[in-house]
Amino acid sequence: MSESVQAGYAPAYGGPDAAATEPYVEPTWNEVNDDVLRTMLVTGPKYWMLFGTTVTIAIVCFFIPWGLQLHYGLGLAGNNRSANWSTFLSNFIFWIGLSHSGTLLSAVLHITQSSWRKAIYRSAEAMTLFSLMTAALFVMVHLGRVWFVHWSVPIPNPMGLWPNFRSPLMFDVMAITTYLTASSIFIYMGSVPDFAAVRDASTGVRKRLYAIFSFGWRGTDKEWHTLGWAYTFFAVFVIPLAVSVHSIVSWDFALSTVPGLHHTIFAPYFVCGAIYSGTAGIVTVMFLLRKYLRLERYIQEDHFDKLGKLLIVLSLIWTYINVMELFTGWYSGGSFELEALRFKLFGFYAPMFWEMIFCCTFVPMLMLSKKIRTNWTWMLVISLLINLGMLTERFITVATSQPRKFLPEAFGFYFPGWTEFSITIGSFAVFATLFLIFIKWVPCVSLYEVKETLTPRRRVK
Amino acid sequence: MGGIMGIFQYEDDLLRLVQQLKNAGFTRPIVLSPVPLEHELEHIYGPRKSPVRRFSLAGGLTGALGGFSLAVACSLVFILPVGGRPIITFPPFLVITYEMTILCGVLFTLLGFHVVSGLPAWQDHPYDERLAVDRFGVIVPCAGEAQRVDAARLIRGAGAEEVRDVEDAS
Predict the structure, then answer these.
(1) pLDDT lower than 50: segments of chain B
(2) Element (H or E) spanning B3, and its range?
(3) Burial of A24 (C-beta count, 10 Å sphere; 0-12/13-18/19+)
(4) Which letter does DSSP use for residue A220 in this model?
(5) For A107, which of A89, A112, A235, A401 could close a Cys bridge (C-beta 3.0–4.6 Å)?
(6) pLDDT tens-digit profile of A439-458?
(7) Does A227 touch chain B (CB under 8 A)?
(8) Are A448 and A113 in contact (CB under 8 A)?
(9) Residue of A220, A270, A258, A217 lying closest to A99 (CA atoms)
(10) ipTM
(11) Which domains does chain B have, with CATH numbers?
């Protein structure tokens, strides 16, 4: 532990972005520990103000409306007889999508031994975990009678009721349970050596707690060897899992015969969209971590440059699939499909559709310029716009299809109720709260992997 | 078994010592480091595979079998005939099988990690807090006093910052 740590750090939040204008100086290994552990061990008043704000918004906008909805019923939402699925489900898809780049990107880059992942993957994986938790909350909110959620679990019960595993909703239960479990294990196991570093840098209760979290890790060659193998296997399992999760979410829609949803292209469309929004989410989170936790020496222009290039590729694929979805619907010539298309492109929600196209197809093309890709503010704005577009995409998928299925006499209309607006806003506060807790309990940058990217500590250079 | 522990500032000093220990006929020492030195140690002792992979395979197979059996069993105890379709049907059940393969694969890999690495290890082992920051350590198990003297000499000669006797060289 360096003297600066023992003497106490400067507050880590809200400081000026001084390092952005200074030339880059590679940190020493000691400084890596100090810089990253400072974000955990030193908590300024701005953190508590921010934490208090997000908790308050989460309670007021998410949990209280949910409580009222549990009391009065789902009628408080905009659901009606033709629109049984609502914003809660579109938000569920959005949050599942946002979860997709963290663990998936981390696993892919680990397998391909891309060293640029090392500074950003821990926070990206945390984003996966908390997005998934938020998504799981939306399933509960959507359920209405949430106290019967255990009916979806294959456990003996007095009714003799067992889950129907032919239903895509049960695929969902299995996929999300598996994804949540695997993502939790993936991030936890990658953090074990860093928990040991926190243990060694702490005193009192925190030291005892991190001694438990780190399993008594010492960094022996046997421990590193075993962790390396296990981590690679986790990565190998997680990649197909992540692809399967959003494919399965797409089948919630595509396995129905509803016009506008019954497309074979839905699985790759959803997976691509998920990775797209997740990557944009990583850019947003990295911007905030870099700026407010003073991690300029670890999260650099190069990371944003590479993430920007990835976003361009994903944007092009996403746009291509979108065009194909429209084309196949039009080419089928079916009257139901044509009506679904007409409503989506020119109906009540058409402005949202074109906003989505603007945000997800045209805006990302700005990143073709390297100046934009390496400009923090531009990247933040673009990443936020992409996710606005993706949130819209999820919404119009739900809002324009199910209420207008086949016969015009049965057509309905869906517009979100106040609980849906409120709970949607609150979900961002829930996510932010979880993330703020995370940065105080887990090193948000991997200590040992960042050290691997620095100059090795050798006598002979 | 007792032994000698050395702490080094530089990675290459440590690796040179490990090579010397191997040449001198010592049993494989325990190397402690803040970053993995797997590739460097492979150059000295050769590559080795981890038994963790067997746990992963066993987990995958158990999950596949368990997942398919679960879907079949649920269909048989709670029969839901839909449009004359078969009760036991492969396409949807393969999705459950796939997810369970991954779930059990991950859980068994986690189990394998704990079994093979010996963690959690709550009892005291030789350690130094600097080893989680920027120092490298080595613990050389020694069978007798003569080996202790030899090991200490080699460790000092390699440029160790600190050399100490340890009762438990594990």
Answers:
(1) none
(2) strand B3-8
(3) exposed
(4) B
(5) A235
(6) 999 998 888 888 888 877 77
(7) yes
(8) no
(9) A270
(10) 0.93
(11) 3-48+123-166 (3.30.70), 52-117 (no CATH)
